[in-house]
Amino acid sequence: MRTLIAGGTVVTATDTVRADVLVVGEQVAAVGSDFGPVDRTVPATGRYVIPGGVDVHTHMGLVTPTGVSCDDFATGTEAAACGGTTTIVDYAGHEYGEPLAAGLERWMAQAEGRAHVDYGFHMMLREVDDRVLKEMAGLVADGVTSFKLFMAYPGIYMVDDRSLFRAMTRSADLGALIVMHAENGGPIDVLVERFVAAGRTSPVEHAHSRPAGLEGEATARAITLAELAGVPVHIAHLSSADALAAVRAGRDRGATVHAETCPQYLLLSEDDLRRPGVDGAKYVCSPPLRPAGHQEELWRGLRLGDLEVVATDHCPFTVAQKAAADQFPGIPNGLPGVEERVTLLHEGVLRGELGLNRWVEVTATAPARLFGLYPRKGTIAPGSDADLVVFAPSHERTLSAATHHSAVDYSCYEGLRVHGLPEVVMQRGHVLVEGGRFCGTPGAGRYLPRQPGPAA
Ligand code: URP
Ligand code: ZN
Predict the structure, then answer these.
(1) Model pLDDT for residues 87-120, shown as the tens digit of each residue
(2) Inter-residue contact 108 to 414 (CB < 8 Å)
(3) What is the DSSP-derived secondary structure letter of residue 330?
(4) Which residue's alpha carbon is at the smallest distance from atom 8 of ligand 1?
């Protein structure tokens, strides 16, 4: 099958050119013109043709102590596709004492036959002992080449510095990447206890109990430990100017540190947690939304390259799940976002926060490169998977839970006017979205084993 994406402006991380894209079978064959007869033509005049988005931070069906995130691999990847994202890297986990391979197997089973877009996995390590260290090699061999460690959530995920360091040195030997949840969980727990005892239990107190200084401190410590272990470290969901300063300081002295932020930290703020009733609870996530002053610094970090990736940390809970607790420690942590990410960052382009090529870079190319998927994913070039988005930049619309595809029953961006619609979304040459409407088949998404090493 030969498909032509005709007459669009092809935007990659490096180039913006008026050109046709020829797709043969599941791959991009050429970018240019005069390709001769084709079986199908997708008109793209007045549209951007961009690589399918790569969201390297999602939690589909994540089981947490306060509930299960409400998108599974079917609904969550339908939402992703409609938002112009054709690859996700989800966080697999394991129970205490459970072999890592068994945890991965469960996540594979949840995705297989359901996912609409291609998917890979990171593994969240909740304990680090000789067994786990040994098993990490098997995960890398299976294409899980990044391990997430937590400096927060005591009793659930947090491990101590000795364990962090042991996992880091092992990852260095395996060519794997460490992904870090960098918040200092010990002091946070003390603050939570004190706040609850003092009757400070509303959603905004969630943010006050996790101050930016404790994210900055943990980020600096993570980088120092990773430097000593000789392993690259990727700071997940970076939310504050404090953490960004730690990343810059690490880079300045030569540390191999990468960093991601999320749309919610660029566009939402602590004020959203002050919304009355359950509305405030809808915005509880960790790290928390920060005072609005942090946003400018994060946009600047994105422009300058200090922040390389925009992922979502898509971890949605329904309004009922968010409303079940009357004190902030019981509110499930996490926000939806997989469907809005590419369009929200395009708003950043329109606001002059970043250029067109940088938009593609932070939403597709850099995450693909960092997580061992490039050049198969994240770009438009001969031999790359034909994961393509025909993006209509002047299509004005209003974001709303009434029209989104995620299973979650609210939107953090309800009522926001945006410009841009992923009109046609293709994965490996197959159309998932046409005219903005979803037309995919469950199970069309494939597992992506990832290469070790590129982040170093
Ligand atoms: O609040 C969040 N981000 N929940 C998801 C789990 C995590 O910490 O990434
Ligand atoms: Zn997360």
Answers:
(1) 999 999 999 999 999 999 999 999 999 999 999 9
(2) no
(3) G
(4) 286
| DSSP at 15 | -
* 292 vs 327: CA distance, rounded Å: 24
E strands, 161-296, in order: 177-181, 233-235, 257-261
CA 232 to ligand 1 centroid distance, Å: 21
Q: What is the distance, to the nearest Å, from the Cα of residue 348 to the centroid of all Cα atoms in its chain?
A: 17
- Indicate if ligand 1 lies below 6 Å from the C-beta of 207: no
Residues whose beta carbons lie less than 5 angstroms from ion ligand 2: 313
Instruction: Give me the mean pLDDT over the 397-421 stretch.
Output: 98
For residues 89 and 371, the answer to whether their CB atoms sit within 8 Å is: yes
* Bridge partner residues of 425 (DSSP): 389, 433
* pLDDT for position 441: 87
d(C-alpha 47, C-alpha 151), whole Å: 43
Measured from the alpha carbon of residue 331, the closest ligand is 1
Instruction: Decide if 281 contacts 372 (C-beta within 8 A).
Output: no
Q: Which residues contact 312 (CB under 8 A, 6 or more apart)?
A: 55, 57, 58, 262, 263, 336, 337, 338, 341
User: What's the confidence (pLDDT) of residue 268?
Assistant: 98
* Average pLDDT estimate for 375-379: 98
CA of 180 to the centre of ligand 2 (A): 10
**Ligand 1 atom with the shortest distance to the CA of 315:** 5
Amino acid at 251: R
- Who's near 202: CB < 8 A, 6+ residues apart? 280, 328
Confidence class for position 410, pLDDT limits 50, 70, 90: very high
- Structure tokens that stand for 318 in this block: 């329904």
Centroid of ligand 2 to alpha carbon of 39 (angstroms): 42
**Average pLDDT of the residues in 364-392:** 98
Give the integer Cα–Cα distance in Å for 119 and 443: 11
Which residue type sits at 267? Answer: L
pTM of the predicted model as reported, rounded to 2 decimal places: 0.98
* Distance (Å, whole) CA 431 – CA 109: 24
181 lines ligand 1 (CB under 6 A): yes
The string of DSSP letters for 72-91 reads -HHHHHHHHHHTTEEEEEEE
